[in-house]
Amino acid sequence: MNKHISKLKLGTVYGLLILLVLWQLLHWSIQSTVIPEPYLAIKRFISLLPGTLLPHMLASLIRIVGAVVISIIAGVALGLFIGVNDKADTLISPIIYVLYPVPKIAFLPVFMILFGLGNTSKILIVTAIIIFQIIVTTRDGVREIPKGLFYSARSLGMNKWELYRHLIIPAVMPKIITSLRISIGTSIAVLFFSENYATRYGIGYFIMNCWTFVNYVDMFAGILALSFLGYILFKLVDYTEAKFCRWVMIAKEGTRNV
Amino acid sequence: MIDVKNLTVCYGSERALDDVSFTIGKNTTCAIIGPSGCGKTTLLYCLAGLLAPMAGNVFVKEQPIQGIRKDTALILQDYGLFPWKTVWKNVSLGLQVRDMDKKQEKQIVGSILSELGIEQYKQKYPMELSGGQKQRVAIARALALKPDLLLMDEPSSALDAITKEHLQNLILKLYKAHPMTIILVTHSIEEAVFLGQKIVVMDEGKIKTILDNPHFGDENLRNKQDFYNVCLKVRQCMNSGDQDE
Ligand SMILES: Nc1ncnc2c1ncn2[C@@H]1O[C@H](COP(=O)(O)OP(=O)(O)O)[C@@H](O)[C@H]1O
Ligand SMILES: [Mg+2]
Known about the structure:
The structure holds two protein chains of two kinds. Chain A is mainly α. Chain A is built from ten helices and no strands. Chain A has a domain at 59-195 and 228-257: MetI-like fold (Orthogonal Bundle). Chain A has helices at residues 2-30, 38-84, 86-99, 108-115, 119-143, 147-155, 160-194, 203-212, 216-244, 246-257. Chain A is globular and about 70 Å long. Chain B is of the alpha/beta class. Chain B is 36% helix and 25% strand. In chain B, strands 6-7-8-3-9-10 form a six-stranded mixed sheet, sandwiched between helices. In chain B, a hairpin with a 2-residue loop joins β9 and β10 (206-212). The termini of chain B are far apart. Bound molecules: adenosine-5'-diphosphate and magnesium ion (MG). The site of adenosine-5'-diphosphate (ADP) has 11 residues of chain B, from β2 and α1.
């Protein structure tokens, strides 16, 4: 386990180094202010972080966390419901399948008219985009639970709530975590787009604003901030997985050693 | 203790159990043997209250079975352990569901793990264990409930020959240490003769014969001629009728 983590950390350092080298090479080869020198951008990032970038990052973080929390609570609840209940599945799943591929981002103007220009519409557009994946993953996760485990749980005398607590939720947890990982990438992209409108806070706004003022060093400091935000969220998911799905981690270790 | 009367179970149009009747005495053991697909698991699930029969009844202690019974423990063929719970959590689960106080729960789980020799695995997850170790955990989980009726579905079918005999010896030992009625389903003749005081031979959803096994209970039975005589008798019962068809 420890060995695994230190390997991961080493991997992160290695990845960062390669990224920096490529960035520097790009800067040299393009010879344009559009790609500033990494050193300058990082220096600017550090100096802008406390007073300027942090409030923007916080605004974006609140929106993403809001959307993810709403999607997880509502998406998992609905996914469990249709996963367990066949009748609900035949009624609700067709609707989900029709809505899933619709490019919801195109409805951003509608969201802004209906839910205002503030945080609500931004949180809801991200929710509308990531919730479908969570619903479908949860439902499929419930269906994949071996039937024997239900017999086993019932023969131990579990009631409905205990079945959820000891069997259904732990069984779908790893799948929810996986869909969460994908959702976070998506939500950052969607948020970046939606922050270009009707707001003065959020890292998306900051980046586009620097672009308007042709301030590429600041813009790159903003991109670094956004990447950093994504990294922190990914780490948070990793931590959740290590904490709540230890058995999955052990299973992965096992197959790697074979 | 157990009274099965005219039990019939269907899956769709297929009859998995057809008018099955037998009785089993209190604190005795019974092995149900038959080829794969003859309805053994179905019968066991009915006894556990997991399946409702289409016709007929199962009485345990004169009470008709309606759903899960508190003092019945079931060990599934693939053990039915929860992969996300450690050995300790798996074993304590039944007690937790019964709202037992934590101190008593800890004491019971600790003593049952050491009785089965799996204390050192208590923090491991089922996937870190061998088949034989998993089976012990499943037995520990069942015995923690202090059942008066223990149902086992092919307890040794997934184990290698040596582990199989160890496990059968263990079951016999546990039976002698804890008075309870044991019903086990198997497709191994040796297992049925070693562990069954009564041997129910099934085929295609029906009972062919019920044999009494006077040699049951001897740990050294496998080294004796009597064992092979009973095995032969069971084998002949299982084959009888095939020639007539
Ligand atoms: N859930 C099920 N749905 C439909 N048919 C089933 C189901 N379970 C068992 N059967 C059928 O019932 C018969 C008896 O099965 P089972 O009790 O599992 O036999 P055994 O345990 O003796 O191998 C088999 O023919 C099997 O195909
Ligand atoms: Mg079976």
